[in-house]
């Protein structure tokens, strides 16, 4: 006769309803996790100068590690006095000394020549003991070439009654114009001008990514949520691309030329010591060669009156400018505009019922139309908006005339073309395009988006590298205005 056995009938039924007591015993394993249907990005990417340059189409190719710019300076210039003039009697000779800065290395080539006329402001001149109301003209008749500290010039007033009654201080910049000639006489001295050059240096920025084998084949919620992607490959490459763009953005704003001798050198595949490349950023360009406007406490509506004189000082005839700025400066402008409206624009509508519209998109004042463009990247709490900077970036701005600049092309393509004051030049020539190189370095890991028939080594992973080589090109930086709080001074 056979022997049998069977397991006991199990039961966990208890004397209670489906209450919280019951739920605390069984919900841990049975409840379906409730997942929100998208990945929530806690921090936005922001928009920097790089994105504005792309939107403006200010992208050009360059074909070398540097781009040389020839700048033609003003053909006309002022002269600077060296030493006070003293009083000069009517019909008497005025001996004028010029600053050594007016001479280009020798004492023989200042701008002022025999027969030229110096225009003396009316405030220094009297006529018959009465202050004149128009400038006085004084013509150069001779130059003392034996003066070793810089030529001394002999001048006489065209009006024999004009007297330099108020001493012209040393360091005064005076206007020069062409002289008066008698018919049949010898002409004066010729004038000539040259060029100066500026180099824009290329900068290289890189970022890489890596995925270990078996990570891509793990199923994650990331693949099913809105805002997600196809596994870790998508996440890794997108983050790499974002970081490279951030590095470029930072470089074209903050970049400094590399002057360290060898401390920062790196080695190539053959062990050679190679100096890193770096471009000069916009702030560096404006500090070195741009106009400056420093506001006190906050930017006022009246501060817009200063823009036109700045433009005129550089011979700019255009009257449309773009004003890029941080969030704090933008707030000050809105508040200033709102206060102005409240005080002077009676009957102005600030918005529909239940709302106030204090937005400020542009201002037309003193003949100049200024369009505002906020740079969100200046408020990035992980970068420019860090508390350590205070309001250095959020309170900063720069004004750029909205004009096309005609420039000559490269030696290979000499045709002239138009571009804005700001441009980003990517290294791209002769079949090598270094605008945005994206290369995959496959190991033995097999990921669908990566060719699986070649491996560069036997590691169970996949790696990648992104690289850009570029230079920030700033044309007519003297025509741009750096706007900062005077608290930085």
Can you tell me about this structure?
15% of the residues lie in helices and 28% in strands. It is built from six helices and 27 strands. Strands 1, 13, 23, 24, 25 and 26 form a six-stranded mixed beta sheet that branches. A six-stranded antiparallel beta sheet has the order 3-11-5-8-9-4, with no helix packed on it. The chain is elongated and about 150 Å long.
Q: How do the helices and strands line up, and which of them pair or pack?
A:
Blueprint: H1 20-30, H2 49-55, E1 59-62, E2 66-72, E3 79-80, E4 94-97, E5 117-120, E6 125-127, E7 130-131, E8 136-144, E9 152-157, E10 162-164, E11 173-177, E12 195-201, E13 203-212, H3 231-254, E14 266-267, E15 273-274, H4 282-289, E16 291-295, H5 307-313, E17 320-325, H6 327-344, E18 362-365, E19 368-374, E20 397-401, E21 405-407, E22 417-419, E23 422-429, E24 432-433, E25 437-442, E26 461-474, E27 481-485
Parallel strand pairs: 1-23, 16-27, 17-19
Antiparallel strand pairs: 2-12, 3-11, 4-9, 5-8, 5-11, 6-7, 6-10, 8-9, 13-26, 14-15, 17-20, 18-19, 20-27, 21-22, 23-24, 23-26, 25-26
């Amino acid at each position: 006769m056979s022997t049998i056995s069977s397991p006991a009938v199990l039961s966990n039924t208890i004397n209670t309803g489906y209450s919280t007591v019951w739920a605390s015993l069984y919900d841990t394993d049975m409840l379906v996790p409730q997942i929100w249907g998208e990945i929530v990005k806690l921090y936005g990417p922001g928009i920097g100068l790089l994105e504005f340059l792309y939107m403006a189409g200010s992208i050009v190719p360059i074909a070398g590690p540097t781009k040389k710019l020839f700048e033609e300076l003003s053909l006309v210039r002022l002269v600077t006095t060296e030493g006070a003039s003293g009083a000069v009697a009517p019909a008497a000779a005025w001996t004028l000394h010029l600053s050594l800065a007016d001479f280009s290395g020798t004492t023989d080539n200042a701008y002022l020549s025999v027969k030229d006329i110096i225009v003396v402001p009316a405030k220094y001149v009297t006529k018959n003991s009465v202050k004149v109301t128009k400038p006085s003209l004084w013509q150069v008749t001779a130059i003392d070439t034996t003066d070793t500290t810089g030529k001394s010039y002999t001048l006489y007033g065209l009006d024999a009654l004009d007297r330099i009654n108020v001493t012209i201080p040393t360091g005064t910049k005076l206007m020069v114009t062409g002289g008066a000639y008698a018919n049949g006489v010898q002409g004066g001295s010729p004038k000539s001008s040259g060029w100066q050059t500026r180099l824009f240096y290329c900068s290289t920025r890189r970022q890489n990514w890596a995925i270990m084998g078996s990570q891509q084949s793990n199923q994650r919620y990331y693949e099913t949520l809105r805002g997600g992607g196809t596994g870790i490959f998508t996440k890794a490459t997108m983050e790499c691309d974002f970081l490279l763009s951030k590095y470029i953005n930072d470089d074209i704003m903050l970049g400094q030329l590399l002057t360290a001798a060898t401390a920062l050198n790196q080695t190539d595949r053959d062990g050679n010591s190679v100096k890193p490349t770096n471009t000069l950023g916009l702030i560096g360009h404006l500090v070195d060669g741009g106009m400056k406007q420093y506001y006190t406490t906050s930017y006022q509506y009246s501060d817009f009156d200063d823009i036109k004189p700045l433009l005129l000082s550089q011979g700019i005839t255009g009257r449309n400018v773009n004003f890029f700025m941080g969030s704090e400066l933008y707030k000050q402008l809105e508040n200033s505009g709102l206060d102005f409206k409240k005080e002077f624009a009676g009957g102005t509508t600030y918005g529909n019922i239940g709302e106030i519209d204090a937005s400020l998109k542009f201002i037309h004042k003193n003949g100049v139309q200024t369009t505002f463009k906020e740079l969100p990247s200046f408020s990035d709490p992980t970068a420019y908006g860090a508390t350590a900077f205070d309001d250095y970036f959020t309170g900063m701005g720069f004004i750029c005339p909205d004009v096309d600049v005609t420039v000559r092309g490269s030696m290979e393509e000499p045709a002239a073309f138009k571009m804005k004051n700001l441009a980003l030049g990517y290294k791209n020539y002769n079949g090598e395009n270094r605008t945005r190189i994206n290369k995959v370095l496959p190991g033995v890991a097999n990921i669908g988006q990566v060719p699986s028939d070649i491996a560069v080594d036997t590691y169970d992973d996949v790696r990648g590298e992104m690289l850009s080589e570029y230079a920030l090109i700033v044309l007519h930086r003297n025509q741009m205005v750096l706007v900062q709080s005077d608290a930085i001074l």
